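Wait, can you check?
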Amino acid sequence: MTSLETTTARPRPAAGPSPAAAARTRLLLQGPIVETLLRLAAPNLVVNVVLITVTTSVDAHFAGRLGPDTLAGLALVFPLLMLMQQMANFSMGGALTSSVARAIGAGRHEDASALVLHGLLIAGVIAALFTSVFLAVGPSLYALMGGSGAILAAAIDYSSAIFAGAFAYWLLSTLTSAVRATGQLALLAWVYVGAEILHIGLVPLLVFGWGPVPSLGIAGAGLATIISFTVSSLVLAAYLASGKAAVRLKLRGVRLRARLFGDILRTGVPLSLQPILNNFSLALLMGYAGTLGAAALAGVGAAVRLEYLMYPVVFGLGATVVAMVGTNVGAGQLARAVRIAWIASGLGAAASGIIGLAAMVWPQLWISLFTSVPDVSAAAATYLCIAALGYAFIGINTLTQAFQAMGQTFWPLFANVIRTVVIALGGWIVLNVTGGGVIGLAIVTAAGLAIAGIIVAAAFWFKMRRKLETA
């Protein structure tokens, strides 16, 4: 009788999320939009500032105490480390957040939980690629970038430690993205703050040594990051496995499905080109500035740092957009999802526009942080006062995250390609035809930002209007 009941009984429905997790999902689906955006974006901002700014600044601080050659070696590795972080956290991580959020919104909790494991497997493969590539070709690459002698040795030591532990970066970013999709962003902020406290304590210990702990030099800074990220990953994994979130991390009993891999990769792979294009655009701009002399190069380099500081700040809002828009799209609430996207883009444009306005009016507030050399300061101020006209469009690009939340990547990627083309062709024309110098490069930068922002906004407006009309 028992055997017969077992074979004929319906399978039990999957257990739903805990009451607290269900309440967070309701907040994404029903909460006041502006209040919810700001409430969730604040801890996201903490996460991004810790991940991108504080961690690398601490490593640079202690590298400087080892000497200028070590600091220069760290600088060679920094762009590649930033590229990996952006791909892990923003591109593939954002794709996972989008997929999980849509599944939660649609009530597909088994799929939402299974997506976490699928995301971890993707992260493991990509991390292995980063490890194998940079351990193999890193020394040659850093030499090609101009490293030699003690500078090259420091770059290799730091790079080897970082990329040998690349899985820690990808593991933390993947688990962070899964938690972010549930709306539990305050937990992420606390975990990242704790990770940085651990990191700050470990860096001097491992770099300089103490008692039985040997001095590892700059490699110790990389190892400290890997350890702190691994500990943070274990905390997030324990939370996701506890059943307290809207998704549950399970390593067994999950059937791997091509559909779920495809759902992540369909948006993650194209958007992985975004950080590559961003860094290529920066390299082009710096190359053009370098032809104008050392003062122009140093000045533009100092000014451009403000633009790149705004990206993680805006992403603090954009990551919230992915969770909110994705959940609402999954629940069939397209009109609310579109409203969230437009309100977020307005908030982002206002925030980045205010920063741009302040930079135009008081450029020395920023420039004085990096230099007091008159020629360098003058070049930086000239560039910043014009380029900042385009900064509001950085905030409008939160619509990129709205596209991502809907599983659409063409228009954000197209806009970024156009921006790169504008900088490449515009910069060449400025230097070889008009002789516009730093002013011309600043105009090209502002134009590139504006054109990219307008493309994304126009594409979103037309596509969403059509979807709403046919809904």
